[in-house]
Amino acid sequence: MAACGSETARTLACRDGAAAARLKVTSIFVIFLTSVVGILAPVLLARFFKGKPAYDKATLVIKCFAAGVILSTSLVHVLPDAFAALSDCHVASRHPWRDFPFAGLVTLVGAIVALLVDVTATAHAELHGAGYKPVGTKEEMAETKKSAESRIESGELGASCGVEIDQRRRGDAEAEELVRLKQRLVSQVLEIGIIFHSVIIGVTMGMSQNQCTIRPLVAALAFHQIFEGMGLGGCIAQAAFSFGTTAYMCFMFAVTTPMGIVLGMILFSATGYDDSSPNALIMEGLLGSFSSGILIYMALVDLIALDFFHNKLMSSNSWLKKASFIALVLGSTSMSILALWA
């Protein structure tokens, strides 16, 4: 409890409600603009490459950078903050928080829930696809189809093979649609996890009256939102949503943290709870742990493992695999460095 008392004394020396309010209003606009820049950058870059030979390779590298950002967000930012909130002296001295590692438990629950959603949605998509499973790589199927078409034109194969070609084309289209559905599911679940995280950041800042904490946090969160936006934007770009859906998802990411700041300011005005109150710390710890579990699962299973072990384009190009790995490391390193400030 002595450590708790000294921490309170340091906090009281920096408490200034009016100065904190001015910093928070400034942060709303700064964080909104940087969020827009971050999430739109990969989306616009993908649209620039669309229709060009390098489109698939560019979106893959962007997605690997995004995977690194999201994995680092979950392990270096969200999870440590959740553990810190639930181990704070105001919380850890209470029953049952001192008796069990709830942060780890809720992280586990988040990962299992993400798995359940992933399995259920994938099974539903496959059930409504025609059940066609393509054999071989996309390049092999295209070569087989081209060879068969030329043999039909030369009279070597009968018209019945033309029907088979049509069936294969339909099967290819269905397989590609399943891939798109999976990519869209990944993007949507990722956005849910990131929105949880963004709300926690915003509410925590909004409730804080500590100007010494808020001032450096504004600049750090600006960069944080740029890299996190690039991570989510890379996944949205590869999922090839319609313009309306892409705009909606980008808008929701951009406004979530500013809305969280406003909500935190309202909560402080209405209840008097600041970001160091036990109830606020418990809420921050539980929501942070849950979103961390979601993000860890999605980053490792649906982004990194899917691309590095099951992507035919990457397995057939050694230089693309190296470039993707470098992008993954750059994404995770960039986000990890920001943990020095936010």
Major pleated sheet? none
Instruction: Please estimate the helix content.
Output: over 70%
Estimate what percentage of residues fall within beta strands.
Answer: under 5%
| Number of discrete domains | 1
The quaternary organization reads as: single chain
- Cα end-to-end separation: 26 Å
Instruction: Tell me the overall shape.
Output: globular
Short synopsis of the structure:
The chain is an all-alpha fold. The chain has 12 helices and no strands. The chain has one domain.
Write the layout of secondary structure elements.
Layout lengths: L1 H13 L2 H33 L5 H32 L2 H4 L9 H27 L9 H16 L5 H49 L3 H29 L3 H29 L6 H33 L1 H4 L2 H20 L5
3D architecture notes:
One of its GO terms (cellular component) is plasma membrane. It is a multi-pass membrane protein. The chain is built from twelve helices and no strands. The longest helix is centred in the middle third of the chain and has 49 residues. The chain is globular. The two termini are about 25 Å apart. Helix 6 runs antiparallel to helix 7. By secondary structure, it is mainly α. It has one domain. About 5% of the residues have low confidence. About 85% of the residues lie in helices and about 0% in strands.
Considering the chains and any ligands shown, give keywords for the structure.
85% helix; 342 residues; globular
